[in-house]
Amino acid sequence: MQAFTQDVKYALRMIVKAPGYAAITILTLALGIGANTTIFSWINGSLLNPVPGIANQGEVVALSLSPDATSPFPFTYPDFEALRNGQQSFVGLTSANVAPMSLTGTGQPKRLWGMITSASYFDVLGVKPIRGRTFLPEEDAAPGGAPVVVISYRLWQTQFAGREDVVGQTMDLNEHRYTIIGVTPAVFQGSQTGVRVDLFVPVMMQSLLMPQGDLIHDHHYFWLFVFGRLKPGVTLERAQGEMTLRLKPEVAAYPDEHRGHDQVTVYPLWRSPFGANLFFSTLLPMLMTISGFVLLLACANVANLMLVRNIARRREMAVRMSLGASRWRLVRQLLVESIVLAFAGGAIAMLMTIWTSGAMTRFVPQMDFPFYLSIEADRTVLTAAFVFSLITGIVFGILPALRASSEAPGGVLKEAAHNASGGSGQARLTSALAVAQVSLSLLLLVCAGLFIRSLVNAEQIDPGFDSHNVLMASYDLFGAGYTEPRGIQFDRELLTRLQALPGVQSVMLTSRTPLTFAGGGSTSVKPEGFVPPPNVSMETQVAIVSPKYFATLQLPLVSGRDFTDRDGKESQRVMIVNQTFAERYWPGQEPIGKQVISDLTNESFTVVGIARNAKYNQLNEAPIPFVYLPLYQVYRAGMTIDARVAGNPLTLATSVQQAVHELNPDVVVFDVTTLDLRRQLSTIGVRIGGTFVGAFGVLALVLAAIGVYGVTSYTTNQRTHEIGIRVALGASRADVLRLVLGRGILLTLLGLVLGLGLSFGVTRFLKALLLGVSSTDLVTFAGVALLLGAVVLVACFIPARRATRVEPVQALKYE
Question: Could you tell me whether strands 176-183 and 148-151 are parallel, antiparallel, or unpaired per DSSP bridges?
C-alpha cells in the first residue's frame, strides 16, 4: 500500500510538471467517459431498472400474444383467467391497464391517470404500501364489488397534503365514490416504463372507469397487460410453453378473435413490449455502442500523447532501470499516472453526467400524457464512472508503459539528449494509433451523418396529411356520466360551436390522430369475398371520426364520399378504407359498395370511400390497412378535437376550451397542443440520435485531426536531419512537402479503408432507427470519407509546410 501511495504522489508531481499535457488529456478523457456515463445513466434508469420500486426485477416477466415485440398484443380478461387459474410456472400472475380517470366532487374536475389491476398486482410485483394495505383476493370476486383505491405517494402529497389519516378517506372517480385503502412508496410509479400513474383500482371496477362496457366477460376485446413472477428455476421457454398450452381452450372457443394471436410470448421485464422499454431496448444499446467507440477514440488519442511525452522521459526511465528498478516497477508507475489522469477525467465526466442524465426527457414534446422516467446520476452511475475510468486508464496507458519500459538503458544513456527520438518502433506504434483514430472517427461520422440525414428526411417525408396549423384538444364524456345518446348530441352541438369560432377553417372529432400515439385501437374485420389464410390475423387499425375528418387533415379521398351528418344510427352503416386495405382484400375490384363486418359492433358496413394512404404510427412504416368508422354510428366517449385554423393554432386554445365548458363545465379538457408538436413524438429516436451521435461525430473529427497532426509532427521532427541532407543535396520545397505529406496521406487512406469496412459492418444495426435513408447509404459514406480525409490532410499539411522551411545548416546541426 505504501508503494502504491508513493506511485500516486509521484504521478501527481509529474502531472503538475506538464499542466498543458495534463489539461488536454483530462479534457479528452472527460468527454469520452462522459459520453458513456450519460448513456449508461439512461440505460440504468430504463432497462436495468425498468420499474423502480418492485422487488427482484429479474424474476418479473411480461406476457404478450404476439411473437413480435414491435407489435405487442394484450389479452382479454377471460384469456388472463385461463392463464392464471392452475398455472405452475409463476409465483403469481397479474394484469393491468393504464386508463384516464376524472377526479370529481372537488369543484373543477381533474384528469388523472390510473391503473386498473387485478387484486394480485402489488403482491406479484413485490410492492409494499407505506400507508394502509393493497388489494385483497376477494376484491377480484365480482364486477362492481370493490370500490377501493390505492393512491400514489405523489397524489397523497399533492391532493391530500400528506395527511396521516388519508387511509379511509373517500374520493370520487368518474362520479363514483371510492375508499382510499393505501399509499404506494414514492419510488413506485406503476408497472409500465415511461408512464407515471397516480391511482390503482381493482379490475372489477372496470365498467365504471372505461367506456367499453363490461370487459370482464368479453372474449374479443384485448386490453390487459399481463405480468408474472417466475418460480425459482423456471425458464422463459418453459413458462411460455405452459402459457400457450393453457390458452388453447380460449383459442378453440374463440378462433376468430385469436386468429394470429394464439401463442404466448414471455419477455424479461426490461424488454417488456408494453411501455417505453421497446423503444429504449433498441435505441440505448446502439447509443452505448457508439459512445464506446468515442471512448476508444479518446484512448487512442491520449495513448499517442503519452507515447510522444514518454520520449522526453526515456533517459529518466533508463536511469531508474540502471539503479535497479524492474520493468514491472516502471510499468506500474506509468499505469498509475494513466489511471490518475483517467480518474480526473472521470470526475469531470460525472459532473457532466449530473447535468446530461436528464437530457433524454427534454426531447419529449410537452403533453398531457404522464410520460416519466426516473433517470439520475445515482450510485450505480457513479460506480459505472469509476469502472469506466479504471478501464480507460489501463487501456490507454498499457501500450505507452510497455513501450517506455522496453528499451535497454545502456543504449538510451549513450544517446545525445536532444536525439532521444524513440526510434522506428515508436513511430510505427504512433502511426498505428493514428490509423485507428481515423477509422474510428469515420465510423462515428458515418453514424452521425445517417442520423442527421434521417432528421432532415423526417421533415420531408410526406405523411399523407398536413400537420401544420392544426390545434388539438381532448375531452372524455364518460367521466362526466354521459350516455351514448347524450354524448352524440354533445358532439354535434360542440362541432357547430367550434366551426363558428373566428379563424377556424375546418374542425372534426376523432378517436385517433395520425402519428400522435393517441388511442384508437383496432378491429377484427371480415371483408366481403375474402377468405383469410390459416392463423393470419385480421386485426386492422381503426379511427372513429366525425364528418370533415379528411378535409381538416387535408388527407384526400381518392374515390367515393366523406361521412356526413346523416350517417347516424338510423341510416345504413358505412365505412371508409385506405388504399392498402382495398388493394389487399379486393385486388383488381371496385371497393365502393363492398361489405365489411367489424367486431366493434358485429355489424356489416358498406364501403363508401377510399382514402389515400397515410403514416398512422411511424414515419418509416410500410403501408398498412386502415379503416375509418363514423362517430355517429360507432360512438366513443373520449374524443380529440382537431381544428385547422388560420395562423398560430394555440391562440385558439382558450376559445376551444370555453366552447366545451359552455356545454358542460364538468367536462375535462386536456392535452391542448398542436399537431406539429405531436408529430415530433414520431421522430424522438432520430432527434436523440442526431443530437448525440452528431456531437460524437464532431468530437471524433477533432480528435482524428489532432491525432494525425501529432503523429505527422512527431515523425517530421524525427526526420529533421534527413530533410536537411535532402535539401542540401538539392531537394526542392515541393519535394520535401511531398515527402512529409505522403506519410500523412498514407495513414489517412489506411484509416479510411479500415473505417469504411467497420462502418459497413456496424451501421446495419441502425436500420430500425433511420428514416428515409439506407444504413449503407453511399452518399453519406462518400461524403463523410471526403470530409474526414480533407480535414486530416489539412492537419498533415501544417507540419509538412513547416518542414519545407527547414534550413540545411540548422538541420545538420540537429545531430
Answer: parallel
Q: What is the mean pLDDT of each run of 10 residues along the chain (815 residues)?
A: 72 79 86 91 85 90 85 92 95 94 79 94 96 95 93 94 94 92 94 90 94 89 94 95 95 90 92 81 87 88 76 63 69 84 92 84 74 81 91 84 62 50 60 84 91 85 92 90 92 96 95 73 91 87 95 96 94 97 95 94 95 90 94 93 94 94 90 87 82 86 77 66 66 70 81 91 86 88 90 78 63 51
Facing residues of 216 across strands?
none
**Rounded to an integer, what distance in angstroms lies between the CA atom of residue 614 and that of residue 263?**
31
Q: Are 114 and 197 in contact (CB under 8 A)?
A: yes
pLDDT of 365-384, one tens digit each? Answer: 777 777 777 788 888 899 99
User: CB–CB of 669/497 below 8 Å?
Assistant: no
Nearest to 370 by CA among 639, 188, 74, 112: 112
pLDDT at 405: 62
Run of H or E including 303: helix 277-311
Q: Cα(241)–Cα(264) distance, rounded to whole angstroms?
A: 8
Which helix or strand (DSSP H or E) is residue 475 part of? Answer: strand 470-476
Distances (CA, A) of 815 to 196, 335, 391, 424, 713: 72, 32, 40, 17, 18
CA distance 386 to 350: 9
Which residues does residue 595 pair with via DSSP β-bridges, in sequence order?
606
What pLDDT score does 721 carry? Answer: 61
CA distance 340 to 306: 13
Counting other chains too, the contacts that 587-593 makes at CB distance below 8 Å and 24 or more residues apart are: 591/559, 592/559, 592/560
Buried b (16+ CB within 10 A) or exposed e, 81-109: bbbbeebebbbbbbbbbbbbbbbbeeeeb
Look up residue 728 and give its amino acid.
A
Write out the DSSP string of 628-662: EEETTTS--SEEEEEEEESS-GGGGHHHHHHHHHH
Of 270, 198, 228, 197, whose CA–CA distance to 46 is shortest? 270
Buried b (16+ CB within 10 A) or exposed e, 410-436: eebeeeeeeeebbeeebbebbbbbbbb
**Under 8 Å CB-to-CB from 198, ≥6 apart: which residues?**
112, 113, 114, 151, 152, 154, 155, 370
Alpha helices in 719-732 (DSSP H): 720-728
DSSP at 605: E
Query: Grid coordinates representing 487?
Result: 354524448
Q: Which residue shows C-alpha cell 401544420?
A: 468
Residues 6 or more apart whose Cβ sits within 8 Å of residue 605:
573, 574, 575, 595, 596, 597, 598, 629
Cell readout for 693 is 451521435
Cell representation of residue 124: 406479484
Name 252's Cβ contacts closer than 8 Å, sequence gap at least 6. none
Cell numbers 429516436 correspond to 685
Cell output for 573? 352503416
Q: What is the DSSP letter of 764?
A: G
CA dist 248 and 65 (Å) reads: 12
Q: What pLDDT does residue 430 have?
A: 74
The whole-number pLDDT of residue 104 equals 77
Model pLDDT, residue 60: 95
The three grid cell numbers given for residue 48, joined into one nine-digit string:
436495468
pLDDT value of residue 488: 95
Q: Is the pTM value of this prediction over 0.85?
A: no
What tens digit of pLDDT does each residue of 566-597 get? Answer: 999 999 999 999 999 999 999 999 999 999 99
pLDDT value of residue 680 = 81
Using alpha carbons, select from 617, 635, 501, 625 the residue that is nearest to residue 567.
Answer: 635
Q: Which of 492, 519, 471, 507 is nearest to 211 (CA)?
A: 519
DSSP H or E segment with residue 311: helix 277-311
